[in-house]
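Reviewers of the previous submission asked for a worked example of the structure-prediction workflow described in the proposal, so we include one complete record here. The input consisted solely of the amino acid sequence. No template or homolog information was supplied to the procedure at any stage.
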Amino acid sequence: MTGTLSLGAIDWFLLTVYFAAIIAIGVTTKRAVHTTGDFFLAGRSMPAWITGIAFISANLGALEIIGGAANGAQYGAAAVHFYWLGAIPAMVFLGVVMMPFYYSTRVHSVSEYLRRRFNNQTHLLNSVVFAVAQMLLAGVNLFALALIVKLLIGWPLWLSILLSAVFVLAYITLGGLAGAIYGEVLQFFVILAGLIPIVVIGLHYVGGFSGLKEAVQDPGLLHTWQGTTPGHWTNPLGDWIGLAMGEGFVLAFGYWTTNFAEVQRSLAAKDLNAARRTPLIAAFPKMALPLFTVVPGMIALVVIPKLGKPGGPTYNDVIPEMMQRFLPNGVLGIALTGLLAAFMAGMAANISGFNTVFTYDIWKPYVVKGRDDRYYLKAGRYATVAGIAVSVAAAFVASEYNNIQNYIQLLFSFFNSPLFATFLLAMFWKRVTPWAGFWGMLSGTVAAAAAHLSAYHIGWFYPGGEVGPHDTINAQMANFYGALFAFVVDAVVTVAVTLVTKPKPVAELAGLVWGLPDPDSPDAHEALVRQPWWKSPVVLGSVILTLTAALSVWLVIAV
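From that input alone, the workflow returned the following structure tokens.
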């Protein structure tokens, strides 16, 4: 990026108002935080529309904004697969099928579910893996946040990272999850206000969608499913096996259904039906997000010279570069505020997920047992400080990647894919044994690492089918296959160990396995309450899937 932005008084005023509002939310919600339940799960008191907006806002971090735009520039129209294939179906599955397991069992985290379904060893393994993953992902959001601070003030990247970390630390430790959720609701609308001007002005500059289509020099960047034949792929994201099975199934379902940073927002809902509707409400804006991320990335290909090439801006710089080129004062202030909101929302989601799992699933059951609630509340706040400190180091790792979405998908293939295989078997097969869960997850994680290291030596992942320089590998395709391999290895090992070990008694699985409801669940009566159609998770899910399928077909025809 070239220099710093020239901000006017109105831009600085808007930024100041936003930061003041975020701190005020943290201070206000702190007054309601008296217990660990208040701090980590917001007292389970939020209405569905609040948790739904917070759910999608928590996802609108570096992954969505910087990574989505980078994907639009690097992969073109095919990047919509990260939304319509790689998110929507999994969000519907979470709301319709999986939320009753999480919410009605009154677990504080995904890891706690694994303890009750399997054993302490499986629980501890997942807790540690999840905690590490959240700190690495927080580092990605912190890196993106520091990029904007550097653009604003011109400070070195390292100083921008430290400044950004201190601010996020302040507002998370004040209000806990409630503070993060209310902040995320505000941030959602600020984010949209910041991205809309970039899209409108950028499209006007290139002559609308038709002008953009004509200006993109590589016709392969205009296709979504074309060129996905295995062994002869030309699509920027590789073949249909990796897309449909690796991204659309394993990575998508693994992220949306087992990533506690997202699930935690649903657990804060006031009742089971509200918890189930949370990801479904979030799915509607998720459908529209390619317009605000992928499209700016494709516009950037046309207007930014040497984008993604040696000596030019990286794909990560798409959104900041577009802001520099197109936005006048006033509008620039809104856009900057939106980006800062997005990256803080993403980082807050990662850190609030980390501090919950660390406190409830590592510290309390295995390190310091039997203390009062106030002690664990304090431990949670200390964990927040430690998590942000580690994320500072992780931010420098993220800065080494030209497209942080490639890095993020790599992390998901390591941490989410094996966990999803274990979950899927555990929730639908009561025979799965405690030790099968442990060895399945461990072997799946090792398999993901092996797949990542091996991919660079396999011609299947290179254009033309022959191994070339490492920087020519199709990184996303390798991530898709790595996730699929980890899933298969986890599943095979889980089944094999199940067949030679002893399962839990069926009486201990009530509420934890499909078809074995818990009659003593606090939400058991909700199944008997008839909901109006517009509150029915099944109806909402059906509408969402129909709309997504229609959009996908329309895009194939349109381009």
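Confidence is low (pLDDT under 50) at residues 38-43. We consider this example representative of the routine output the project will generate in years two and three.
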